[in-house]
Give the backbone structure.
Amino acid sequence: MSRIEAAYEESDKRLYFVPCPTCREFQVLKFPQLRWPKGGPEEAVYVCAHCGQEIHNHQKQWMLPRGAWRATAKGDGKTAGFHLSSLYSPVGWFSWGEAAMQFEQAQKNPSLLQVFVNTVLGDTWTLLGEAPDWKKLYDRREATTLDRVHAAMLLQAGGRANALRSMLKSETERSPDFLRLANALSALYPKESEEKRLLDAMLLSAPR
C-alpha cells in the first residue's frame, strides 16, 4: 500500500459530488452509470442515478464548477482525504467515450484491466498484485495525459527529484497539454489537500 493510499484509508474520504444538469441532484460519478450502444463505446453517456436522464460528456463543463467535496467517512479526525477518478477529466481531455473504449479493450486483456482500474477509476488493483510503478504506467502506449500527471505526482510524493525533472522535461517538449491539465486539476482540488500540494510542488519543478 502506498503512502497516499494509507493516508486516504485513515481520512474522512472526501468525494467530489456534482449536480445533474436535469434534476440538479448531487452524485459521485461512477463508472457503472456509463451507458453506450453495442459496438459504440465512443458514444458513451452518463445516466443520472436520481432521475435516469442521459448526461453527455460536454455537460461536465457545467457540472464540474458547481460540484463540492463531501466527507464520506469519520476517519481519524485529523486527515482530510480526496479521491477523484478520470471520469471528472475536464471537457477536451479524457472523455467518457474514451473510458468506455478502454474498458472494452481491457475485457480482452487482464493486464489492461489492471491499468484501467488503477488509472481510469483511480482504485487499487487487489486481484493480480500491486499496481504498476510510475515508469511502467508512464511507458504504456495507452497512457493518457491524466495518467502521466498522476505518475508525476507519484514521483513528487516519493521525493524522486531527478526522475521528476526528466519526466517534466519530456512532457513540456511533447506538448503543452500536460501542464495545462496539471494546472486545471490544481484549481479543482481544495487549497489544503495533499493532492493540490503535490501538484503545485510538481509544477514549480517544471521547466520554464
